[in-house]
Amino acid sequence: MFENVFKNVDDVLWKEAGCTTELDYTEQTSWMLFLKYLDDLEQERAMAAELVGKPYQFLIDEPHRWSSWAAPKTADGSFDHDIALVGDDLIEFVDGSLFPFLKGFKERADGPDTIEYKIGAIFGEIKNKFQSGYSLRDALEYMDALHFRTQKEKHELSQLYEEKIARMGNAGRNGGEYYTPRPLIRAMVKVTAPKIGETIYDGACGSAGFLCEAHDFLRHGSKKLSTSQLRTIQQKTFHGKEKKSLAYIIGTMNMILHGIDAPKIIHTNTLTENLADIQEKDRYDVILANPPFGGKERKEIKQNFPIKTGETAFLFLQHFIKMLKAGGRGAVVIKNTFLSNSDNASRALRQELIESCNLHTVLDCPGGTFLGAGVKTVVLFFKKGAPTSKIWYYQLDPGRNLGKTNPLNDDDLNEFVELQKQLTESDKSWTIDVKDVNQETFDLSVKNPNTPEEDPLREPGEILDDIANLDAEAAKVLDGIREML
Question: Are residues 246 and 347 both part of a single domain?
Fold first, then answer.
């Protein structure tokens, strides 16, 4: 049923003039989904308070509550068509009253870690793109069929929302910025193995896939958790930053659907933070990230980093190294050219990484891992506090070409996760000693010693001689044919 609701809402949005891309569909679905979730959460809390004889103070006042304007009901619980706003009246209410009211929560909230602040932050960034109040009414009625009352329902909805984010990521370059293949994220989480009580950070969190998967690893990968452990996961574990408005909204919504009521995601450009200002209290135990690459930052932002570079991903890597606590673990996706680029910034950053951290594992991902990205990537796994002595490489080879209809899956990464536990060598994995690395270039290229060597390139003169010999043989054949005619 849930899947049909999402499909029906997409069909409505497809006909809506204000929505033209999968990004628009996800954005508009998000704000309706958020308000429906919030209404179910408030109703659940109100019933719980009533059972113990306590009053409950609703966050959303009566006129702006979902059950008042989006889905008014009659006494028997059926939809009340007589009082439901529709057409221009509905658009006027949403744009002129609802959104301004919700946006105001940011100023009225007690602090940034409250759900009130998140409400204000989301509706300060998002805009209603419905132009037809009749289309919006249809979408709201479909959305009202969704329920968040049980853990099973919340899990199913979070899975459907992940699928929607994936479709958005497949829709084009901009959408792809927000989506990292979930099987790759899960493998990265398994290798870093976060524990309850540790803090987890992603400074370029996009749709919050890393934080959501880490949450599921802690929440569902353990035995029955205590109330204290659940509170730690809910309130003290996950932290993120995101620069782009749509990604911030989607990431926040994604975490809420995964069970984090007030996600600690900050809408900011992470790279504006000067590394020299970072103190011990600002650092984290685990960092999981796929920072954007290929972008360019302004000159004043580059001044925040000791290694000056125009490559956004290299700035993020410096940030992540600085943000890790001593003994903290990091897993970061980066372009594979980082391992071999000869420019000064790349060399200096590689040196910084292997001297300040134990870069124990490099996962070499095949082309097609990131749909539409057009570049090959590696994942760097490192632990801060001791220099690197040996690096274990694994060359991921799924045995097929990856693409939109044939994406990466969990089975593709099972061998990597298993072999990585003991850093076992195989046809696809090998170890290098950092003492053997060129100390001038610090070239860490992926070079599988188990791959048969290709025939060496021949000298140009030798090739020309072969061509001349072949031409002579061809001339003799042609002469023979002419004599036969």
Answer: yes
The answer to whether the beta carbons of residues 117 and 124 sit under 8 Å apart is no
DSSP state of 317: H
Co-location of 284 and 410 in the same domain = yes
What CA–CA distances, in Å, run from 186 to 67, 75, 214, 360, 428? 38, 47, 8, 18, 20
371/363 Cα distance (integer angstroms): 18
Residue reference for tokens 């036969």? 484
Q: Quick one: 394 and 338 in the same domain?
A: yes
Cα–Cα distance, 363 to 403 (Å, whole number)? 19
- CA neighbor of 207 nearest in space, from 165, 170, 237: 165
**How many domains, in total, are found in the chain?**
3
Q: Is residue 272 domain-shared with residue 406, that is, in the same domain?
A: yes
Tell me the pLDDT tens digit for each residue of 101-135: 999 998 888 877 788 888 898 898 888 999 999 99
In a domain, 26, yes or no: yes
Query: What are 211-248's pLDDT values in tens digits?
Result: 999 999 998 876 788 999 988 998 899 999 998 888 88
Handedness of CA 28, 33, 36, 38 (dihedral sign): negative
| Terminal Cα-to-Cα distance of the chain (whole angstroms) | 78
Q: The dihedral of CA 394, 398, 401, 402: what is its sign?
A: negative
Query: Among 395, 390, 368, which residue's Cα sits nearest to residue 379?
Result: 395
Amino acid at 253: M
Answer whether 179's CB lies under 8 Å from 204's CB: no
Q: Are residues 249 and 293 in the same domain?
A: yes
Return the pLDDT at 172: 46
The secondary structure of 143-199 as a DSSP string is HTT----SHHHHHHHHHHHHHHHHHHHHT-HHHHTT---HHHHHHHHHHH---TT--
φ/ψ (deg, to 5) at 27 = -60, -50
480: containing domain: 457-485
Edge-to-edge strand order for the sheet containing 200-202?
265-267, 238-242, 200-202, 284-289, 324-335, 377-384, 357-364, 390-395, 429-433
Is residue 41 a contact partner of residue 261, using CB atoms and an 8 Å limit?
Answer: yes
Amino acid at residue number 133: G
Identity of the amino acid at 157: L
One domain for residues 389 and 279: yes
Q: Beta 284-289 vs 324-335: how paired, if at all? A: parallel
pTM, rounded to two decimals: 0.82
